[in-house]
Design goal:
- This is DUF892 family protein.
- InterPro entries: DUF892_YciF-like, Ferritin-like, Ferritin-like_SF, YciF.
- It comes from Flammeovirga aprica JL-4.
- This protein has one domain (about 5-165): Ferritin, core subunit, four-helix bundle (Ferritin, Up-down Bundle), CATH 1.20.1260.
- The protein is elongated and about 60 Å long.
- It has five helices and no strands.
- It is mostly helical and about 170 residues long.
- It is about 85% helix and about 0% strand.
Length: about 170
């Protein structure tokens, strides 16, 4: 890992971290879409995949504008959450619980992304121009909108499972 000598170095590192996180997520969204039973969750996964790809495209543009390479270290946080989800899924036989476990991980990944983009925006405000800020603000707005959708979907899945458990 490169030494961070100034705020710009940390800014670039955090952008690379988000880039890797989004790339990892795209790698699992399609696979998860094949596993879930909830039509609503399938829709959410498709939205998440589209959003992650859009963020990668935005980050590619920013890296080009900054004359930086987007390749960096692996986002260990995202990798760990995905590995943990796979362990949970191996031990889950109830398809409703599987859907909830998948969405739980997506929400955790998303929370990490949301915080990461907030940090990047704060750094960018100090070290870069308004064009970069505008792109980052749009990405953060997209993350916040997605956050609301994930929360609503989680609540619906939990309520559905609770009703099924009460009926049994």
């Amino acid at each position: 890992m490169k030494q961070f000598e100034d705020l710009r170095d940390l800014f670039i590192h955090q952008m690379k971290d988000r880039y890797d996180s989004e790339t990892q997520q795209i790698g699992v969204y399609h696979e998860l879409g094949l596993r879930v039973k909830s039509v609503g969750l399938k829709r959410v996964l498709a939205i998440c995949e589209k959003s992650a790809q859009k963020h990668i495209d935005f980050l590619d543009e920013l890296f080009t504008d900054l004359h930086e390479n987007q390749v960096g270290d692996i986002c260990e946080c995202s990798l760990g959450m995905i590995k943990e989800m796979n362990k949970v899924l191996e031990n889950t036989s109830n398809h409703n619980i599987t859907d909830i476990a998948i969405l739980s991980t997506i929400r955790q990944l998303h929370s990490n992304d949301l915080t990461g983009y907030q940090n990047i925006l704060m750094y960018a405000d100090q070290v870069h121009d308004d064009a970069i800020l505008d792109v980052l603000k749009q990405m953060l707005k997209n993350e916040k909108d997605l956050d609301q959708l994930l929360d609503e979907t989680m609540l619906n899945l939990i309520q559905k499972e609770h009703v099924l458990e009460v009926e049994v």
